[in-house]
Amino acid sequence: MFATIKPKTFWSITQGWKATREPSTAYFVFSRIGTAICAIIGLVLLLQPYLHK
Fold it and tell me: What phi and psi, each to the nearest 5 degrees, are found at residue 12?
């Protein structure tokens, strides 16, 4: 969830120490979209037993 809300901060914590320059804006947009999709899938899988009673 943190990567979805603040992708630049997440990148600087996880990858910034080994990079020489910051990636493009498109990288952060697609990163935000990808992490949001993964979070939604994870929530659906966690709630699936409770939805099918």
Answer: -65, -30
